[in-house]
Amino acid sequence: MPEEKQIVPEEPGNEFNRRAFFVKLGLGSLSIAAAGTLTFAYQFLSPNVLYEPSPIVNAGRPEGYAVNSVTLDVHSGIYLIHAQEGFFALSAVCTHLGCLTAWKPELGIIACPCHGSKFKRDGEKIEGPAPKPLPWLQTWVSVEGDLMVDRSANIRPMQFVRV
Amino acid sequence: MAKTIKSYFEELRSTRVWRSVFRSGTGSSTLHRALAVQQNVFLHLFSTKVRTRMLSLSATWYLGTMTFGTFLILVGTGIPLMFYYHPSVPQAYADTKDLQFVVSSGLFLRNLHRWSAHAMVFLVFAHMFKVFYRGAYRPPREFNWVIGVILLLVTLLLSYTGYLLPWDQLAFWAITVGSNIASAVPVLGSKVHFLMLGGNMVNANALLRFYVLHCMILPLVAMLFIAVHFWRIRKDGGLYAPQSESRTVTAEAVPAGAKGAQ
Description:
The structure holds two protein chains of two kinds. By secondary structure, chain A is an alpha+beta fold. In chain A, 21% of the residues lie in helices and 29% in strands. Chain A has two helices and ten strands. In chain A, a hairpin with a 5-residue loop joins strand 9 and strand 10 (147-155). The longest helix of chain A has 28 residues, at 18-45. Chain A is elongated and about 85 Å long. Chain B is 68% helix and 0% strand. In chain B, 19% of the residues are buried. The radius of gyration of chain B is 24 Å and the shape is globular. By secondary structure, chain B is an all-alpha fold. Chain A binds chain B through residues 42, 45-47, 50-52, 96-99, 114, and chain B through 173, 176-177, 179-181, 194-195, 198-201, 203-205.
């Protein structure tokens, strides 16, 4: 019948028919659902509450640290150093790949057992592979007179705390 | 009339129950033997026919088969180990010790698991080099090479996630270092690190995540890709058989139009 042929045009530029519409609708819905699933998965896998130790560490009374002493707290991963100029705290976590460094009193340096990075007592890098010096951590004296260190707050070097 | 064992088997194979399970029919004809492979859900991944010379040791050194063998040993020893291992901070190390010193055959299972894991990594690399130097990665097998690379990565991830589970000093620092390497990824690094460990440090969340990855997700991914890897061997024309030198010379002498005849 000639009328039906007019209803179904076959020119290449006019191919949007019912099937194409439903294919686009189906793929569109699937893409939205996939994006939603990815978002949900990302949010689900990122914990909202962490049961990790607090970043703020109470290092105890300042009198407990002799002048020119370097004290490593293994559990919190910090050095408390009593220099001539005053107290300061260094992160003991190597800036290379996160190993716990160790103070070598016989050499007067901080060394990393994993890949051999070496640092001076003030955190400055002596040799690699560590890319950065050990960061200085915010240190203050609490109202009770205890030395406090915030492991999550890095400060510029050479800011000593005098008690 | 004395019945032989063979005749009992033939009787069994002609029963209705047997025929309902194995529908390819009995008989030693080429057709029946081919059907036995082709109509089995596991064996149909493989070719029904193989060149005899491809079955010789020199052709493949059986490296892929041996890799799959170690994978089966790892599944077979890993599942029993899961019965005694709790992926929690207070228990993981003690459970590992118990497996070593208290559980019957625990030492054997754990050591077999560990040595097979080392062997699998070695065999995967050996298999890769063998395929590379024989030129078996070339078209039409290039996609199977890509699947092989995915399987190599899955193998390494399985090794890496399994490394944390004993929860000893070696495990803790290895995963600390490894996860810090992941955080060197540009832009996304710290997010990848956080998602991987489920926190900022290697702790209870990290142990549980690595356990789930090691015992569930990665083995399933490995099985899926192993199945595709085997199936692609058949689909890509069977094991790669290099042409002998004389045939290459003959092929060069034949005009381009007549190549189809060979």
